[in-house]
């Protein structure tokens, strides 16, 4: 859990170009919890595949010279509603926030860090979830 990021089940890798990832790392949670047990085959393996691909691409000087790929990977917890909620994280950088009325205690303007801009999303694992996420992301091009 990084500073300024409220998503417990996420990975952030800095890069010149950021790709998003949505994977069911955990199963559905029980008794009101969002996430349950780890899903090794369908969740962890797919997550590791994306991380492996990023490492291979970033470590090949001929493939994308002078460019590194980053990632913002989120856990869908095997729930379509949670995946939709998580996908909104990818468009936060495109949403303008009105900070005209916000001031620091010292009276100065606030320092607002803008989230990274995600240029594409890999996942989710099910086509029904992928279609819903694509419809949300399509609104933001």
From TrEMBL:
Localization per Swiss-Prot or TrEMBL: Membrane
One Gene Ontology molecular-function label: G protein-coupled receptor activity
Main localization of the protein described in the UniProt heading: membrane
Pfam families given in the database record: ANF_receptor
GO cellular component: membrane
Domain Receptor ligand binding region: 46-141
Topology relative to the membrane: Multi-pass membrane protein
Alphabetized SUPFAM superfamilies for the sequence: Periplasmic binding protein-like I
InterPro entries: ANF_lig-bd_rcpt, GPCR_3, mGluR, Peripla_BP_I
Keywords associated with the record: Glycoprotein, Membrane, Receptor, Transmembrane, Transmembrane helix
PANTHER family cross-referenced by the UniProt entry: METABOTROPIC GLUTAMATE RECEPTOR
Protein known as: GRM4 protein
Organism: Xiphorhynchus elegans (elegant woodcreeper)
Gene: Grm4_1
């Amino acid at each position: 859990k990084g500073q300024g990021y409220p998503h417990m089940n996420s990975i952030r890798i800095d890069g010149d170009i950021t790709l998003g990832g949505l994977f069911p790392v955990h199963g559905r949670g029980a008794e009101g919890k969002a996430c349950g047990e780890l899903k090794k085959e369908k969740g962890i393996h797919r997550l590791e595949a994306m991380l492996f691909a990023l490492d291979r691409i970033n470590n090949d000087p001929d493939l994308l010279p002078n460019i590194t790929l980053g990632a913002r990977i989120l856990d869908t917890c095997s729930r379509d509603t949670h995946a939709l909620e998580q996908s909104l994280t990818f468009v936060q950088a495109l949403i303008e926030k009105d900070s005209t009325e916000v001031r620091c205690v010292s009276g100065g303007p606030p320092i607002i860090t803008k989230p990274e801009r995600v240029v594409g999303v890999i996942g989710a694992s099910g086509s029904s979830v992928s279609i819903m996420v694509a419809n949300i992301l399509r609104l933001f091009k």
